[in-house]
From TrEMBL:
The protein, known as: Uroporphyrinogen decarboxylase
Keyword hit for Isomerase: no
UniProt keyword terms in alphabetical order: Cytoplasm, Decarboxylase, Lyase, Porphyrin biosynthesis
One GO MF term: uroporphyrinogen decarboxylase activity
Catalytic activity from the UniProt record: uroporphyrinogen III + 4 H(+) = coproporphyrinogen III + 4 CO2
Cell compartment(s), UniProt: Cytoplasm
Described purpose of this protein according to its UniProt entry: Catalyzes the decarboxylation of four acetate groups of uroporphyrinogen-III to yield coproporphyrinogen-III.
Main location: cytoplasm
UniProt similarity note: Belongs to the uroporphyrinogen decarboxylase family.
Organism taxonomic ancestry: Bacteria, Pseudomonadati, Campylobacterota, Epsilonproteobacteria, Campylobacterales
C-alpha cells in the first residue's frame, strides 16, 4: 500500500497534500503527559521502546496527521557518545561536561560504535513498523551536526551561542573536529534508523540562524549535505528532508544545494520566496507560524494562503517550527482537517 506522505516527498500524485506537525507527539496532548508521568522523566521515555512507540502513534489517532515522527530527542547522540546529559525540569537539557578541550573531544566515542549504542531508538522503530497503519509513514530524524555541537560546547540551550561562536572565529579547526566527529556518528545513526524501518528521515538544524550567512555553508550546511549524500548512496529510494531554521537569507542568495528531496521551510521564510528559489528542485514542507494554532480563524487563513501559493504541487503541510505545549488539541485537529480540506483533489 502506498503511503501518501512518502509519495508527496517524491513528488508523486496524491489525493490531497499530506500534513504532519513538528513536536506532534508532545505536551499539548494529555495522553502524552500520562505516558510521560508513567515513565518518570523525559529521558526514561526516550529509552523505553514500548512507551516511545505509544506516544509516537498518539497524534495519528488523536489529531489525524499523515505521518508519525519517531519519539526521541536529538541529544541522545552526544549522550551515547559519552557525555553526561540530564533533563532538568523547568530548565531543559544540560550537559555537565561540555567540550572545552581536545581531551574532552577525544574521550567521546565516535562513528559506528556510538551509533550502535542507540539500540532503544532502533527497537522503537521496529515496534512502530509492526503497529503503524500501512498507509502511514514513519519519519526518523537527527539533529544536524552544528545544532548538536552547540549543545555539546555550550552545555545547555543558549540565546547567544557565545562559546561555540567564539570557537568558530578563534579556533575554527577545533570546531570542525567536533563537527566531523558528530557527522560520522549521525551518518551511521541515520542508516541504522532506515534499516530498522524508517520510511523517511529528517535532519533538523534548529540553531541554523545563529550562524552568519557567509559562514553557514562551512559550519553547517556542507555537513548536512554530506549526511544526505551518505544516505542517498546507500538508500536512494528513502526521502531525505532538510530543515534548517531561520535561513531566509541563505535561500535568497541561492546557497541551498544538495542531494535530498524535501526542504523544510521555517515560518520566518516567505513560502513564495521558497517556492521561487527552491520549488523546482525540492518538495517544500511547511510553513505555518505555530502560534496561529491558538486561533482557528488564523489557522484557516494561513492554510488557505499557503495552498494558494503552492497549489498542491510539490508540497507537504507542516508548521514552520514545533507545536507549543499549551495549544488546544481541538485547534491541532482543525489545522490538520483544514490542510486536507483545502488541498483535496
Amino acid at each position: 500500500m502506498s503511503k501518501i506522505f512518502v509519495d508527496a516527498c517524491l513528488r508523486k500524485e496524491t489525493p490531497y497534500t499530506p500534513v504532519w506537525m513538528m513536536r506532534q507527539a508532545g505536551r499539548y496532548l494529555p495522553e502524552y503527559m500520562e505516558v510521560r508521568a508513567q515513565a518518570g522523566n523525559f529521558l526514561n521515555l526516550c529509552h523505553d521502546p514500548e512507551k516511545a512507540c505509544e506516544v509516537t502513534i498518539q497524534p495519528l489517532d488523536i489529531v489525524g496527521v499523515d505521518a508519525a515522527i519517531l519519539f526521541s530527542d536529538i541529544l541522545v547522540i552526544p549522550d551515547e557518545m559519552g557525555m553526561d546529559l540530564e533533563f532538568i525540569k523547568g530548565f531543559g537539557p544540560k550537559f555537565h561536561d561540555p567540550i572545552k578541550t581536545e581531551e574532552d573531544l577525544d574521550r567521546l566515542i565516535g562513528g559506528e560504535e556510538a551509533a550502535n549504542k542507540l539500540t532503544y531508538v532502533y527497537e522503537t522503530i521496529k515496534l512502530l513498523k509492526q503497529k503503524l497503519p500501512e498507509d502511514k509513514a514513519l519519519i526518523g530524524f537527527t539533529g544536524a551536526p552544528w545544532t548538536l555541537a552547540t549543545y555539546m560546547i555550550e552545555g545547555q540551550g543558549t540565546k547567544t551561542y557565545n562559546l561555540c561562536k567564539k570557537m568558530m572565529y578563534s579556533n575554527p579547526e577545533f570546531l570542525h573536529k567536533i563537527l566531523r566527529k558528530v557527522t560520522d556518528v549521525v551518518k551511521h545513526y541515520m542508516i541504522k534508523q532506515i534499516e530498522a524501518g524508517a520510511d523517511v528521515v529528517q535532519i533538523f538544524d534548529s540553531w541554523a540562524s545563529a550562524i552568519e550567512v557567509s559562514k553557514y555553508d562551512e559550519f553547517s550546511w556542507k555537513y548536512m549535505v554530506e549526511i544526505a549524500d551518505y544516505i542517498k548512496e546507500k538508500y536512494p529510494e528513502i526521502p531525505v528532508i532538510m530543515f534548517p531554521k531561520g535561513v531566509a537569507a541563505f535561500i535568497e542568495r541561492d546557497l541551498v544545494y544538495g542531494n535530498f528531496d524535501v526542504f523544510g521551510v521555517d515560518w520566518g521564510t516567505p513560502m513564495a520566496l521558497a517556492k521561487e528559489k527552491l520549488g523546482s528542485k525540492y518538495v517544500l514542507q511547511g510553513n505555518m507560524e505555530p502560534c496561529r494554532l491558538y486561533s482557528k480563524e488564523a489557522t484557516t487563513q494561513c492554510v488557505e494562503g499557503i495552498q494558494s501559493i503552492m497549489q498542491g504541487e510539490g508540497h507537504i503541510f507542516n508548521l514552520g517550527h514545533g507545536i507549543l505545549p499549551d495549544v488546544p488539541v481541538e485547534n491541532a485537529k482543525h489545522f490538520v482537517s483544514e490542510c486536507q480540506r483545502v488541498s483535496k483533489k
